[in-house]
Amino acid sequence: MTAETSAPAGSGLGFDPISRAREQWHEQGWDTAADGMAAITSLMRAHQIVLARVEATLKPLGVTFARYEVLMLLWFSRRGSLPMKVIGSRLQVHPTSVTNAVDRLEDAGLVVRSTHPEDRRAMLVALTSTGRELAERATKALNTEVFEQPGLGPDDVRDLVDTLTRLRSHAGDF
User: Fold this and answer.
1) Nearest to 71 by CA among 20, 114, 125
2) This prediction's pTM
3) CB–CB of 49/41 below 8 Å?
């Protein structure tokens, strides 16, 4: 992108830089890719915006979104615990990412790790009462500050979820 299209958020641009980039794609003769570029770039920029809102909401609670996802996965589990491998599979992340998140959560006293009682090769991660309380506070904050106010109307939210579900399905996400 040009310097014209790389201004930081809140810069007060009088134009949409992604729309301008689409025009430039057309000017270069890349017509068949222009809309796709605009869609993907818009999606990536929207991800940055939403992630910043989520992280700003969670920061005062001392947890990142990745760690929050682990807490909530454990919170929703029947026993409040899951094997590390299951956490990685359900969150669709690399085992190293799970280990990193669990290490940080354990250091903060939010989860405990133990050997799985039925498979000594596997590690079991369990939510502590402090972790459960934090998960509930974080969920309340996210619901109030982000999820109930996503920046789109209800019909647009449903349409967006449907569209992204199709994109994820087509990519083999599930």
Assistant:
1) 125
2) 0.84
3) no
